[in-house]
Write a structure and sequence with these properties.
13 helices, 305 residues, two-stranded antiparallel sheet, binds 3-hydroxybutanoyl-coenzyme A, globular, single chain
Length: 305
């Protein structure tokens, strides 16, 4: 092990930060580019499912809140693309890899949002799961990624609260509104558990990412943390989580719960989800329609030189 490798290993062992100018193993860099790019893509694609409800929100207040949330997600994507660029990759190239299908985004955004209750459920469950997964990433070993996470997690907390408050309001409404919330939760519960990735035993990346301090907890640990956090919230809302195996296990000090359909996750991740084609088509169209903005920014940049 040469001096650079020893310094890298010592920094990781001290739970300290690796910075862009530091030497790092190629595998460490590749893993970070893959994960940060996927995370950024997820934030950008994640604007679509809820964005479809901005013009149909039932009140000005709900529209303002949803607009602010979707705008936040765009900003999260930009922070994360900036973090990825510190690893020597080009943002335009990452976007091309997303649009060509070469790089992924979170499976959760490939599910439809036919009901307004989905806006609340996404805030409560999807952003809730994101918080469980992202708070530990504030301590990830790569400096720019961890610092981007601090700002993002602060905004995710608002996202989760506004979703929960929306559902609480609907649960205090009519029977039809309560039924809308339960139907939405039934559709999103299992895909939300899949956001944490496959079981640790089937994860090709977790062990290495834990050793490098990229991940601070495994997929199963964070999934368990999310279930334990969400069950009392579901009780407070008055909704049932659609898992007959869900129960408190006093001995473990955690909830026991059923297993998501991992074949479904594999299908959705490989492009065969309910909305994969629609999401990528929308992203490609937005990219094409935005070419004039990029051209204007380039011209302005050249003019200011
Ligand atoms: N959706 C899409 N791909 C997934 C996935 C999912 N739910 N779960 C796993 N995968 C992919 C992984 O990217 C990996 O891909 P590879 O073929 O390039 O190696 C493969 O399946 C195996 O999974 P691993 O668990 O081994 O992979 P990771 O170690 O990368 O763990 C992860 C997966 C937990 C998602 C991790 O990448 C991670 O923590 N990413 C950062 C957080 C993130 O991206 N969250 C997604 C949602 S962002 C969001 O919710 C925004 C909020 O505002 C709503």
């Amino acid at each position: 092990m040469d001096e650079s490798e020893r310094q890298f290993e010592d920094t990781i062992a001290r739970h300290d930060r690796i910075e862009p100018r530091d030497w790092m193993p190629d595998g460490y860099r590749r893993t970070l580019v893959r994960q940060i790019a996927q995370h950024a893509h997820s934030e950008v694609i994640g604007m679509q499912p809820e964005g479809a409800w901005i013009t149909r929100a039932p009140s000005l207040r709900r529209r303002q809140v949803l607009l602010a949330k979707v705008q936040d997600e765009a900003g999260h994507g930009l922070y994360l693309y900036s973090a990825a660029e510190t690893l020597g990759v080009d943002r335009d190239d990452l976007e091309q890899q997303l649009m060509s299908g070469a790089q992924k985004y979170s499976s959760i955004f490939n599910y439809p949002t036919p009901s307004y209750a989905d806006v609340g459920t996404i805030g409560w469950l999807v952003d809730g799961a994101a918080i469980c997964n992202q708070v530990p990433l504030c301590r990830t070993s790569y400096g720019p990624y961890g610092r981007a996470m601090v700002r993002i997690c602060k905004e995710e907390s608002f996202h989760q609260r506004q979703g929960f408050e929306l559902l609480m309001t609907m649960m205090g409404g009519t029977d039809e509104q309560r039924a809308m919330v339960q139907e939405s939760v039934d559709r999103f519960w299992w895909p939300a558990l899949m956001m944490f990735g496959p079981p640790d035993a089937d994860s090709p990346n977790t062990a290495r990412s834990m050793a490098w301090g990229i991940k601070r907890h495994t997929n199963d640990e964070l999934r368990q943390r999310f279930v334990d956090m969400t069950v009392p919230q579901a009780d407070a809302l008055g909704v049932t989580l659609p898992d007959p195996e869900l129960r408190w296990n006093e001995e473990r000090g955690h909830h026991d719960f059923g297993q998501p359909d991992w074949d479904e996750l594999k299908r959705v991740v490989s492009g065969d989800g309910p909305c994969n084609a629609e999401r990528l088509e929308h992203r490609r169209r937005a990219h094409d329609e935005g070419e004039w903005v990029r051209a204007a920014a380039r011209a302005a940049g050249e003019a200011s030189r």
